[in-house]
Amino acid sequence: MKPVSGLPEHGRSHADVLKALQAFSSDDPDYKHSKLWSLVYYLDEAHDDFLGQAYRQFSSANGLNPSVFKSLKRMETEIISSVGKLHHGPDTVCGVVTSGGTESCLLAVKTYRDLARKRGVRRPEMVLPTTAHVAWGKASEYFGVKIRKLPLDQDLRADASKLLRLLNRNTIMVLGSAPAYPHGTIDPIEHMAKIAALHNIPMHVDACVGGFILPFMALNGVPLPRWDYSVPGVTSISADIHKYGYAAKGASTITYRHLDLLKQQMFVDQDWPGGVFASAALLGTRPGGAYAAAWAAMQHFGVDGYRELAACTQRAFERMRDGVRAIDGLRVLGAPCGPLLAYAATDRRLNIFAVGDQMEARGWSVNRLQNPDGLHAMITAKHLNVVDEYLHDLAESVAAVRAHPELANSGSAATYGMMSHVPLRGMVRQKVLDLFAQMYRADGGEVDLHTLPPPAPGLRGKLESWAERPMQWYVQRKQQRR
Ligand SMILES: Cc1ncc(COP(=O)(O)O)c(C=O)c1O
Fold it and tell me: Which of 24, 213, 337, 382 could be joined to 244 by an S-S link, Cβ 3.0–4.6 Å?
């Protein structure tokens, strides 16, 4: 008989399925030994088990309707109240737990767009520093809000002196990051919020990365600029518990200075045949397990636990920053405060993406940046154990690329170099989209980032291969010049 679906014809035992899952993970990066410098905030198996147990207790519970699962509403209220206090908010601070940083950022844009609609704004715009996380670009596309880009100063922070000229009657919000994902720099929130407030424009602080570590770094005595509700013009903050709060994935927060703002985020349909419906955030079903694990992590660490984690992270960050600076040919980008940083080559003959490839060959997983080209490190408390080994390998990788500059023309160095330098950005966008879509084909095929998909048949394929010629010419010319 032909199988009726992709499911096994007969169900498998729990043990069998769990073994298969275990096998899947063998292809994943080795984050448990701190080889991965992004995406994951892992401490140890005991903590993961604890989160798993908390998650399991509420894995079927649904936060969609806050009056049904009172347990989840209680956790949410306690989480939001703690975050409000941690971020020096007044008693009026309110908010919701979301599924992640992106949801929190999307919601802020929806809120401020709808608030501005009430005063007649029909062509909404928002001011974002160039380093704003891509979640804000996504929000712009989803909610039809035009982006006005605020350039950076020489330390790669938003240049507040250029903010005023970007504001107009269509501006729905101004954004600052604490810190920004690319370089770990904190934007000049006080200065920006002052200008925004003078023009009655809301100011959101994206503290998805910093929200659960900067307050504890400050308590540990690290000098930091003010960035939270202690700055009068700040009207909302996003802060992820699933990053430096060391919760299970699927937990962030968006808070507002007062309820009139949060109300704009909410959705109500009083006429739906399924019943009168109200929703506080983007999701319908809201995963109880993620709330429980987030609440559990916050209760488990408490202030002293988070301070300890922040102290380890800070030590790892400082060692990394100073270690990178000590390697001839590398420089730290901007003026990061921690917990993350990025670095680039000082010397045009040293290809930083080739250095990245060498690091990968030595077992490290590192992210690549562009504008300027660089390598990225999101540093967690656990990285303190491996930072010296990383720096040793980094020095070796730099030496290897110096000895073999032709490494820049092969492997992912060539691909990243091309993707970040080809001037036809629309074409790069189209190619990335095509490649990315391949990963979501019906048969879920794997895609090698270094090979482009074959040209489409017919006229479209001809046009595409014609359009690719300038790109290939550009890459060849670059390679000849090296
Ligand atoms: C500053 C900032 N904002 C927002 C996000 C989006 O968070 P998430 O990946 O949880 O959706 C990130 C992710 O790294 C970030 O660094």
Answer: 213
